[in-house]
């Protein structure tokens, strides 16, 4: 098995009781079920009480945030209708404003050498040059951007949006990579692992590592003391990572190569070709919506069934072990008299 090396720092080994086995948490659960939901519950568990209280505060904030956003949609729609804002223009030009953030976000997650200066510079420069090239391309059309009508019309032309998006994305990516390489070009392998250890240090006492990844760790035959190391996590999720990379590559191949290439072969569509294209688009959207809508509920049902199966298995094992323990007891001894004595 993949054994974690022993650490000399004893503070890395958590000695706290997990919530599932904590007596204080069980008492708090009983009290919370008996109390009213409108009254904030004060937890008595000395280990997990403050974390539960913090989660309750976040849930209340989340509820109010959803309520406020839902209510504000109505006046926002009225303002948009009153000011006659062109939503089509806002969505298309908004792509130029947002696409510069994608490469920096991906690099910050996947590349340990990504620096904050590179992310900030890439986003700012990509956004600025993206809008500049979009306006420059729009000015080449009839009327330019001299009047408001021409501005709204020419800035959403296909070439204007395409050039702006390409420049915004490319400049953001190249700038972030170059500045990050200059800032962290001496980074060693150990320093790269230390960066990933910062994410491993994020642990929720209510859902500790030992419970979250116990099934995956057992399936991968990995031994650990408190929490898995970076190498163990890398080893454990190798198949999942390869599957994600393969799926992402296939999706990008369809979106960036196959579909645009198919459309490029039809510069002018007749009714039949356009009808087939719309049908293909509807089928594709229906399939994607099917997975998006039904995927999470199916996963939750599978988790519930798996948890129920494990619970029944543990109960069965406990029942089977009870007779075995009773058989090991010596015969001819009255334990009731011993306990009374």
From TrEMBL:
InterPro entries reported for this sequence: DUR (IPR031155), Na/Glc_symporter_sf (IPR038377)
Region spans: Disordered: 315-341
Taxonomic placement: Eukaryota, Metazoa, Spiralia, Lophotrochozoa, Annelida
GO molecular function annotations of the record: urea transmembrane transporter activity
TM spans (from-to): 61-80, 92-111, 118-141, 161-183, 243-263, 283-305
This protein's UniProt keywords: Membrane, Transmembrane, Transmembrane helix
UniProt organism field: Owenia fusiformis (Polychaete worm)
Transmembrane helix keyword on record: yes
Gene3D superfamilies for the chain: Sodium/glucose cotransporter (1.20.1730.10)
Endpoints of the signal sequence: none
Keyword Transmembrane: yes
Coiled coil: none
Record's protein name: Uncharacterized protein
Any one GO cellular component localisation term in the record: plasma membrane
Domain of life from the UniProt record: Eukaryota
Residue ranges with Polar residues bias: 315-325
